[in-house]
C-alpha cells in the first residue's frame, strides 16, 4: 500500500536466502525435514537505512557465521545499485518436530561451515521497562493462513499483525519505518491459539509483545 516492502516480506526475503544458502552448503531437507527436524529462529535484528520500493532491483545476500553450539548464526545485506539498504542478523536452531525439543546438531551429524571472521552478533534479550503500561492491546487468534510448514505461526506474520496495529485507519498516515528492529521468539503459537498483542511506548521506542499462556514473542522498534 505504501509502495515499500512490508516488514514481514523483508524478513521473509532474509529467511528464504538463509534456506537457499544452507542447502547450497550441503544441509538439504534429507538431513533435516525428512528426519523430523525443523529450522526455527530464536532472535533477529535488522538495521534499515531504506526499505526497498516498488520496482527496485535488489540483491539479497546472506552468509553463515561460525556455529555456536546449538545455534547457527546468519548475517544479511540487501543492496540496490551498490548501496546497502538493510543489514541483518539472525540466530537459527533446530528442533524436533514430534516433541518440539531442542536438537544437538552433532547428534545428527549436522555441521555448516561458517564464513571466517564473520561479523559480531548483537542480539540481546528484549526487556520491556517495568514502569510503563500497555498503550494498546488486541485479542487475536492464530489463523490457518499464518501457520507454516513447522506447524506454528510463522515469525514473519508477527510483523503483519504489528503492521495492522500501527496502521488501523485508512485516513491516517502510514507508520514511520523504524531504523532498527529486534525480535525475540520465545514460544510457539499454534493454529487456533488465542493471544494478546500489546504495544508499549518508551522514549520513542515501541515494544510489542504477544502473550498466550506466557510470552510468545517480543519485538522492539527503534526510530
- Give average pLDDT, whole number: 95
CATH architectural arrangement of the largest domain: Roll
The number of strands is 9
Number of domains: 2
Poorly predicted runs: none
Run of helices and strands: HEEEEEHEEEE
Q: In CATH, what is the class of the largest domain?
A: Alpha Beta
Biggest beta-sheet profile: 9 strands, antiparallel
Into which percent range does the helicity of residues fall? 10-25%
Number of helices: 2
Question: Can you identify the CATH superfamily of the largest domain?
Answer: Hotdog Thioesterase
- The fraction of residues in strands falls at 25-35%
In one word, what is the shape?
A: globular
Helix and strand content put the structural class at mainly beta
CATH topology of the largest domain: Thiol Ester Dehydrase, Chain A
Using the CA coordinates, give the radius of gyration. 18 Å
**Side-by-side strand order of the widest sheet:** 2-3-4-1-6-9-8-7-5
What is the rounded distance between the termini?
A: 21 Å
Amino acid at each position: 500500500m505504501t509502495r515499500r516492502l512490508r516488514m514481514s516480506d523483508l524478513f521473509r526475503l532474509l529467511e528464504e536466502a538463509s534456506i537457499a544458502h544452507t542447502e547450497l552448503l550441503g544441509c538439504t531437507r534429507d538431513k533435516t525435514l525428512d528426519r523430523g527436524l525443523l529450522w526455527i529462529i530464536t532472535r533477529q535484528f535488522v538495521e534499515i537505512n531504506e526499505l526497498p520500493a516498488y520496482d527496485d532491483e535488489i540483491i539479497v545476500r546472506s552468509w553463515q557465521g561460525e556455529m555456536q553450539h546449538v545455534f547457527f548464526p546468519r548475517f544479511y545485506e540487501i543492496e540496490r545499485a551498490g548501496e546497502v539498504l538493510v543489514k541483518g542478523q539472525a540466530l537459527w536452531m533446530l528442533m524436533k518436530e514430534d516433541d518440539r525439543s531442542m536438537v544437538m546438531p552433532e547428534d545428527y551429524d549436522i555441521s555448516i561451515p561458517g564464513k571466517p571472521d564473520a561479523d559480531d552478533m548483537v542480539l540481546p534479550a528484549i526487556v520491556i521497562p517495568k514502569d510503563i503500561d500497555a498503550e494498546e492491546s488486541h485479542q487475536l487468534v492464530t489463523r490457518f493462513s499464518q501457520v507454516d510448514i513447522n506447524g506454528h505461526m510463522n515469525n514473519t506474520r508477527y510483523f503483519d499483525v504489528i503492521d495492522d496495529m500501527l496502521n488501523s485507519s485508512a485516513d491516517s498516515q502510514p507508520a514511520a519505518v523504524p531504523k532498527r528492529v529486534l525480535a525475540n521468539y520465545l514460544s510457539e503459537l499454534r493454529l487456533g491459539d488465542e493471544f494478546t498483542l500489546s504495544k508499549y511506548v518508551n522514549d520513542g521506542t515501541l515494544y510489542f509483545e504477544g502473550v498466550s499462556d506466557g510470552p510468545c514473542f517480543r519485538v522492539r522498534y527503534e526510530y
